[in-house]
Amino acid sequence: MGTELDGAVVLVTGGTRGVGRGISRRFADAGASVAVCARRPPDDDLPDDWFLVTADLRDGEAAAAAVDAVVERYGRIDCVVNNAGGAPPADTTTATPRFSERVLALMGIPSVAEAAALAGGGPTARLIVPRIAIGPATCALAVSEERS
């Protein structure tokens, strides 16, 4: 399909099912090279041109190894979509800072973002934390706009 992201390398955490798989598909459809990360292999097959890395992103060393595997394969990472994990429902006005820290750790955001930056993602690398209301089309559009 499209060529607006030809040459871009995107890592989608939690990218093997649900919203993450949809995000991954949209990036691939737009021409990006897609790497997906999950704690375990998916139940069904991924497209042949996607690169799967299995890692528990709550472990900083595992997150760094996942990023290293993507960089080894593609030479860089242009965009990280941190879609892994999730959070139980909570009232954000009363949630403690510890609650927020644990949610971010579950999603692997600190570990993956730091590892990608250290791996040479460069100043053009983007970190996207999707929300259901944003959806895959907006994520792909955001990266496309940053590349232009």
Characterize the structure shown:
Helices cover 41% and strands 15% of the residues. It contains 5 helices and 5 strands; from the N terminus they run E-H-E-E-H-E-H-H-E-H. The radius of gyration is 15 Å and the shape is globular. The protein has a 5-stranded parallel β-sheet with strand order 3-2-1-4-5, sandwiched between helices. Helix 1 (18-29) packs across helix 5 (135-147) and helix 2 packs across helix 4. The protein has helices spanning 18-29, 60-74, 97-107, 109-118, 135-147; strands spanning 9-13, 33-38, 51-54, 79-82, 126-128. It has a single domain, classed as 3-Layer(aba) Sandwich (Rossmann fold). With 148 residues, the chain is an alpha/beta fold. The protein starts with 8 loop residues before the first strand and ends with a helix.
What are the defining features of this structure?
single chain; about 150 residues; alpha/beta; Rossmann fold; about 40% helix; about 15% strand
Q: What is the secondary structure topology, with strand pairs?
A:
Layout: E1 9-13, H1 18-29, E2 33-38, E3 51-54, H2 60-74, E4 79-82, H3 97-107, H4 109-118, E5 126-128, H5 135-147
Parallel strand pairs: 1-2, 1-4, 2-3, 4-5
Helix pairs in contact: 1-5, 2-4
Based on the coordinates given, report the CATH architecture.
Answer: 3-Layer(aba) Sandwich
Overall average residue pLDDT: 75
The fraction of residues in strands falls at 5-15%
Q: Kindly give the count of domains.
A: 1
Largest sheet, order of strands side by side? 3-2-1-4-5
The CATH class: Alpha Beta
Structural class: alpha/beta
CATH homologous superfamily assignment: NAD(P)-binding Rossmann-like Domain
> So how many helices?
5
Give the number of DSSP strands.
5
Q: Report, as a whole number of angstroms, the end-to-end distance.
A: 19 Å
Which segments are poorly predicted (pLDDT under 50) over 5 or more consecutive residues? 131-148
The proportion of residues forming helix, as a percent range, comes to: 40-55%
Net shape: globular
Which fold name fills CATH's third level, the topology? Rossmann fold
